[in-house]
Predict the structure.
Amino acid sequence: MSRSLVFPYPTVQYIPISFMGFEQFESGSAPPFILVTRDVGSLQSHWERFNSNLLILPELAENEAYILVIGMMIHEIKYRGYYSTILGTNTSRGFIGKIPTQYFYKDPIIFQVKDAKGRMLAQCQYSLKA
């Protein structure tokens, strides 16, 4: 049985994390970028680099965070320890969405987007205390 280059540990050691996208956009040739935050101002400043439309975000529940992905498509998110590993591919699109945070039991969380060959595309840090 071969190990995944993205998720090398046994499946039972990961918590799958759902994500809901609510806005997609064209990101052109922008390099891959990820941001996980509850700060609307930070999200808005990154959004404005790619879109002049007003960003209208739904309210977050206490156990949710916004996720902004630029230059990548996300296929799967799994959490283990301090890391939330994301299987993704490079693309000329981006999206804004939200993810649940109630499953995170360590702080801070490092979000790492990797392609199917295990190469790092982008990463960011998210603090549950922020």
Observations:
- The radius of gyration is 14 Å.
- The CA atoms of residues 6 and 119 lie 8 Å apart.
- The beta strands are 15-16, 20-26, 33-37, 64-80, 83-100, 109-114, 120-126.
- The chain is about 5% helix and 50% strand.
